Amino acid sequence: MKKNLIILASVALLIGGCAVGGKFSSPTVKSDTAYPNTTTTDSITSLKWFDLYKDEALNNLIKTVLDSNRNLLIATARIEEARERAGIVKSEYLPSIGYSAGASTGQVGKNAQSVGAGRDGNSFSMYGRLNWEIDLFGKIRHANRAAQAQYLAEIENRNGVMISLIAQTAEFYFVLSDLDNRLAIAERTLGSRKENTRLITERFNKGYVPELDKLQAEQQEAFVASSILETKRAIIEIENALRVLSGQNPGTIQRGLPNQSQDMSAIIPAGIPSQLLQRRPDIRAAEKQLEAQFNYVGVAKANMFPSISLTGLLGFASPQLNTMISSDGFLATGAGSVFGPLFEFNKNRSRKRAEEYRLKQVAYSYEQTVLQAFSDVDNALYNYRSYAEQYEILDKQVMAASKALQLTQARYDFGYTSYLEVIIQEDNLFQAENQRSLVLQKKLNAVVTLYKSLGGGW
Q1: Cβ proximity of 106 and 120 under 8 Å
Q2: Residue 275 confidence (pLDDT)
Q3: DSSP state letters, 383-421
Q4: HEC states along 159-189?
Q5: Can you tell me the distance from the alpha carbon of 336 to that of 136, in angstroms, rounded to the nearest whole number?
Q6: Is the pLDDT score of 409 beyond 80?
Q7: Angle of the 419-453 helix axis to the 139-205 helix axis, nearest 10
């Protein structure tokens, strides 16, 4: 009997090459997109995030986020779940071995025994059981490949979450620094306008200027005072957002370098399209999802064919406990079985087709992910260049507005112009300084977005 089981298993393994569904190969993606950029070997794509952000306070904040962010912890737990599920599927390759033991006693009369109502006396048994499904048409093989691909996809999803968190933390940090700078601008402007209000009030009291000048000065002071409160509210919101990212209760955020002192370059190398396919976690995750679905189609196809199972039973049985483990009580059986669908009214065929249509959806989703990646890089490159140019323009505007305010203030002091012109120049300078600060923040965040769109580094 043992010899027969070995022969049966060997035959099943030899014909296992009949597996249906084929083997997955990575999709070919057209990547002839050309980006107008400077090419160099030393580029942003080769930098780790802690090398890109040269601000110690920001780097410490990012480390805290990566250690404590709840979404990242969830993503890590999903990886472990996928690993264990892959282990469950992989175990299907091997036999299932179990055991059973039992004891019973009964009193059954002869008439009852004659109709099969039971067995009179004692019964003791102890068996070892073996069940093994031969993967004849690749069902288990495809299921295992699908589970492994899902596991790798979860790893890439976690990497994607990590890159997003690094980028989001840096973006919020630069926004916070911008708000600090704009608060300083507003407080400095408020001090100047309070002094203007005091001087004009004294002149009004002496009859040197009309009441309109005094009222206009008060309005300008109130406008800036109001903007300070608005900026402080925004600072609290950004600080709390960063605290949530880092898994902490509301509180303050330690500052490091101001935005004006940040040194972040955006030099991009040649060959970006091919690098994107290798670096971006979302593209790699989409490819693994595609591989998993490809193998689910293989499972559906294999379910349309027969399955072969081997079953073995080895143990002892006896009516007496003291004689159970003996040659007379020894029991060994083995069997092989084939089972499969015959008439299911296209149920399995419909399942296969459903998985094939699902494969098309995942393939289109992969292509969309790649297209979006190329678009992200192009947008980020243009935004960085345009914000850099805009910042230089606004820097000149601030200098011009500052000079114009000085000249207008002098003209007003000597009575050559109205206070309205002073107000206009004060507003121009205030708006120009705020706009320059905002554009600097957007320039820095454009580097962050570019870094993220290129796949980041960790």
Answers
A1: yes
A2: 65
A3: HHHHHHHHHHHHHHHHHHHHHHHHHHHHHHHTTSS-HHH
A4: HHHHHHHHHHHHHHHHHHHHHHHHHHHHHHH
A5: 13
A6: yes
A7: 170
